[in-house]
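User: Working on a comparison across species. This one is Oxidoreductase from Ferruginivarius sediminum. Can you predict its structure so I can line it up against the others?
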Amino acid sequence: MVKALVLHERDEGIEQAFEDLDESRLKERLPDGDVTVRVQYTTLNYKDGMVLNGLGRLVRSYPHIPGIDFAGEVEESDNPDYKPGDKVVLTGWRVGEAHWGGYAEKARVKGKWLVPLPDGLTAQRAMALGTAGFTAMLAVMALEEHGLKPAKDEQVLVTGAAGGVGSVATAVLANLGYNVAAVTGRAETHDYLRDLGATEIIDRAELNEPSKKPLEAERWAACVDAVGGAMLGRVLGQMAYGRAVAAVGLAGGPEVKTTVLPFLLRGVNLLGIDSVMCPTDRRLTAWKRLAKEMPQDKLDEATQTAKLEDLPRLGKEILEGKVRGRTVVEV
Ligand code: NDP
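Assistant: Here's the predicted structure for Oxidoreductase from Ferruginivarius sediminum:
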């Protein structure tokens, strides 16, 4: 039997239940899935909060097992790339949304969705990074490919900085030598963000209101944006000439109010970051870099641990912007 957090769709909404499922049910769901993984760690991401609460129409079929990422050991494999005992990590590919995910003792997935546990990371730390950390690195890579380099007199902005994506982006960028300005709505996270390496803290309220002017003073050399919404519109008008924003998230809402002027008059670029369907070679690069470039002491500082039983409560808290940094769930 496999213990899992199972979601059911009821007239009153989504019901969350801890159940013991027969393992054959995992195979019924994904008969052609190559690999059964014994899940050791999973995590809580913003999207997990949405799935746990039935938001965003991310799940179309119930009963459903959420959990968009996990790390563990291969138990059974029909895929030549993996054998029992291999340590693996999964993020994305709509696992935990369209496919059953990691909030269970075992998961059955296609072998091509897995990556080997990166050298230098334990399964626990791989999940401390998880989808959020992996995506933060994809954003850093996109900004670098657009020409970003550390410069003494320039600042890189990170929005939603005390969240999962924001915490890893802040620590990685600071470690790479960037001056990081961290936007947060939580005064109690200022010391935490400075410990991660931010050199300036900006109050969310300062950037959450639309500006009356489409272009403001040029302020940022780059931005990793986990918030979207009004804040992204505002930041676009503050970008320095020719620079780029990596659009990662929508914690502040999906609708962006802007004009085309930042793009036309300042050559600003908006780089879309998707972690879900990211090709495997880019995944491997991002994980390799995370193992080297995310300082592990900072990662530990940004991580809280939880149990499967805590997920219903935490799933609500992350949507309310109350979860700091990353949450690893020991399964
Ligand atoms: P978290 O909840 O951990 O972080 C989001 C942070 O955004 C919060 O901690 C808070 O930071 C800030 N925030 C929350 N609500 C608001 C608001 N109304 N206005 C302004 N700021 C707000 O989530 P994650 O880090 O896991 O994910 C962040 C975003 O990135 C989500 O939208 C998620 O869906 C998206 N995402 C996208 C991926 C992709 O592939 N593109 C992959 C992973 C995540 P603070 O308290 O510091 O202000």
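For your comparison, note: The mean pLDDT is 96.

User: Helpful, thanks.
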